[in-house]
Design a protein that fits this description.
This protein is elongated. The chain is an alpha/beta fold. Helix 2 packs parallel to helix 3 and helix 6 runs parallel beside helix 7. The protein is about 25% helix and about 20% strand. The protein has an 8-stranded parallel β-barrel with strand order 2-3-6-11-12-13-14-15, surrounded by 4 helices.
Length: about 475
């Protein structure tokens, strides 16, 4: 049930204006623990947007609000070698919608050849151009088709991120391993590319130890402590990282399963190779996320925000959006998302996208949400709002169980915005404090037809439709 709020009479309006403080919303029910009506300045910095750097071509330029990332695949995309062409055909539309980067699945040949999603890598330099593991092409296509995709993305002012799987390998041949006293599938000396040949010395357990931070699925666990492995991953001129960047022209990296090895691995890769970097650290603990991001010198997926959004939008408690998240700790190292190829638990997705596309961090759009499941026009509207209006630091203005209002405070002449999310079954209205005095504002989603003018003290009443959202900024 909604809390009862009142609007002061016109006779008392002048008194109301003079008595309001900067951190209060007028409320009849201040002691209700389900209401959070104090303005909370969540982030504290100069207001500049999230930056992913420049592309390998030097063409990439983000909007005032920063960029938006498209995850350009989902689990078990159609096999048959046509996925690179499918993504290629969508790049122009994505770019026109304001999407600035695309994250691709692991591009190299894996154990299951034409049927693998790439997370069981065999030959890091086989992009669908060697007859290996039962096929020439990967599940996604040929090397030529991948290169055409990357070239097209750059022409469309988009960056391209490679999914990097360096915790484990698969598809090696059996060999006797003296460290375990039996045979292991660790003989990668015959990889077709001839690059980064490996044997049991390059996997745990070996002369460098019995294990590292984590192993996955029984696959041979790559030993990053071995200088030979380091050299092939990021050191030498034709290392995996430098080859992907300088030859294949990838602009950045999504590191898979970073719980499996030390943060120093990603840090060394980034120091030697460069480019944008984000780690998949599947953990809702913000302290764990922040520590890894700092030690890895990398962005990290904001799983803390992900689980809080599920609790908020699927379980009817928007107050949890006051809780700690990675984007609040460090918005410049937080990549936010609503779903991905591994996890898709948020059912009520549109308010979640309204949240990440109006808040700080680097928002990610999931391919199937955009192309198949949700309203593309509404997503494009939110992408436009993110790129053009979602600027500056963040202040939370009001929350209760089914309402949430936050303000982006603007940057470099851009006015910022106010986002209002309403999960109740009826229209709601609230007085809130903006950063704009005596100026007309409007809802850039079109969900409200109001064109209110802020008062001299910057207060204004806004509204939000049921089970939806509105986003307000100057009418200009």
């Amino acid at each position: 049930m909604k809390k009862a709020y009142y609007v002061l009479s016109l006779l008392a309006l002048g008194m109301m204006n003079s008595c309001r403080t900067n951190d209060e919303v007028i409320s009849e029910n201040r002691k209700d623990p389900g209401v959070h009506d104090k303005i909370v300045n969540v982030t504290h910095h100069d207001g500049h947007p999230f930056s992913t750097g420049t592309s390998t071509t030097g063409k990439f330029v983000a909007g005032p609000g920063g960029g938006v990332l498209m995850q350009g695949f989902y689990w078990d995309v159609p096999d048959g070698g046509n996925w690179w062409n499918t993504v290629n055909s969508k790049l122009t539309d994505w770019s026109n919608a304001g999407i600035g980067a695309v994250w691709l699945p692991p591009a190299s040949k894996a154990q299951n050849g034409a049927y693998s999603m790439g997370y069981d890598p065999t030959d890091y330099y086989d992009f669908g151009n060697y007859n290996q593991n039962g096929s020439v092409e990967t599940r996604f296509g040929s090397r030529a088709e991948l290169e055409a995709l990357i070239t097209k993305a750059h022409a469309e002012n988009m960056q391209v991120y490679a999914d990097i799987v360096i915790n484990h390998n698969s598809g090696g041949q059996s060999e006797y391993n003296p460290y375990v006293g039996s045979n292991t599938w660790t003989n990668f000396s015959g990889v077709a590319s001839g690059k980064f040949p490996r044997n049991y010395n390059d996997f745990y357990k070996n002369s460098y130890g019995n294990n590292d931070e984590g192993a996955f699925g029984g696959f041979p666990d790559l030993c990053h402590a071995n200088p030979y492995v380091q050299d092939w991953l990021w050191g030498r001129d034709d290392s995996v990282g430098k080859y992907y960047k300088n030859v294949m022209k990838f602009d950045g990296w999504r590191f898979d399963y970073v719980k499996g090895f030390g943060a120093w691995v990603v840090n060394n890769w980034n120091s030697n190779v460069g480019g944008f970097s984000v780690g998949e650290l599947w953990d809702s603990n913000v302290n764990v996320l922040e520590s890894w991001a700092n030690n890895a010198n990398s962005s990290v997926f904001d799983f803390a925000a992900y689980y809080k959004m599920d609790e908020a939008f699927d379980n009817g408690n928007l107050n949890v959006l006051n809780d700690d998240m990675m984007w609040k700790r460090n918005p410049f190292k937080a990549v936010t998302f609503v779903a991905n190829h591994d996890t898709d638990i948020i059912y009520n997705k549109m308010p979640a996208y309204a949240y990440i596309l109006t808040h700080e961090g680097y928002p990610t759009i999931f391919y199937r949400d955009y192309e198949e499941w949700l309203n593309k026009e509404r997503l494009n509207n939110l992408i436009w709002i993110h790129n053009n209006k979602a600027t500056g630091t963040t202040s939370i203005l009001y929350t209760d169980t089914d309402e949430y209002i936050a303000r982006r405070n603007g940057y470099n002449g851009n006015p910022g915005l106010v986002v209002y999310i309403n999960m109740s079954s009826s229209w709601q209205e609230r007085w809130i404090q903006t950063n704009w005095a005596s100026q007309q504002i409007k809802d850039f989603t079109g969900n409200s037809s109001w064109y209110p003018t802020t008062q001299g003290d910057k207060w204004v009443k806004i509204q939000c439709p049921p089970n939806s959202y509105s986003v307000w900024s100057l009418n200009q």
